[in-house]
# Entry
Amino acid sequence: MTSGLFDLSGRVALVTGAGAGIGRAIANALAESGADLLICDIDDAGMAETVCQIESRGRKAFGIHCDVAVTEERAALFAELDARYGRIDILVNNVGHVRRGRPEELAYDDLDFTLRTGVLASFSCAQEAARRMIADGHGGSIINISSIAGATALGRGNLTHSANKGAVNQMTKELAVEWAHYGIRVNAILPCQVLTEGFKKWMTSDTFDDVLHERMLGGIPMNRMATPEEIAGPAVFLASDAAAMVTGTLLAVDGGNLALNAGGSHTW
# Structure
């Protein structure tokens, strides 16, 4: 267990979308640092595996099936939180979906779905968490998992993704300003492409080829994609007292992507 600034002992964290990938990695890292957890996902099997991993680290963990885009299921999620722990110190909004398409052909429902499951659900969860943090008077940390797509345009049919994450970024700043006097810190992590199970599956599909792979790596000076575990460390930092004066920050975890000019190159 971590000691000192990064010690999360005695704290309760809620991580959405923790059945795999980034959410699972963050949940395990928070547990490793001493937090107890409530996690949710629509993948019951994946969620159960994450719970087992957390418990193997000697921490409490409970999983609840929840589609965060559904109002009643979000209400049930926070009711479970109240029943199990009676408090919340850390919220990680990790759920996000992408529906790609050319803007001129994009269906309204695809944009609506992406925003409902992304920024709108994240705001609702943040609001529920903040209400409890304010009532308890102990503050807390809210971490939104965003993307480099929220800061620069990706093209390639990513309008829904970029619009959603851009909204997440601005929401993060607004909530950080509004809730700072309650001791609630609100930050976002902006990863580059992450080698999650879903991303790896896409890489083996007909819509992914060597040209696209090289194009993506060309935008990352470190010349590789991130792993879920490399997003987890920054999340622990933002959740911990080591980040006590950090709020409203959009933390790029992107191998230098946002630092690279569009016309620049990390090769000679």
Notes: The chain is about 45% helix and 15% strand. The longest helix spans residues 108-136. Strands lie at 12-16, 36-41, 61-65, 90-93, 140-145, 184-191, 250-253. Helices lie at 21-32, 44-55, 71-84, 108-136, 159-179, 197-203, 210-218, 228-239.
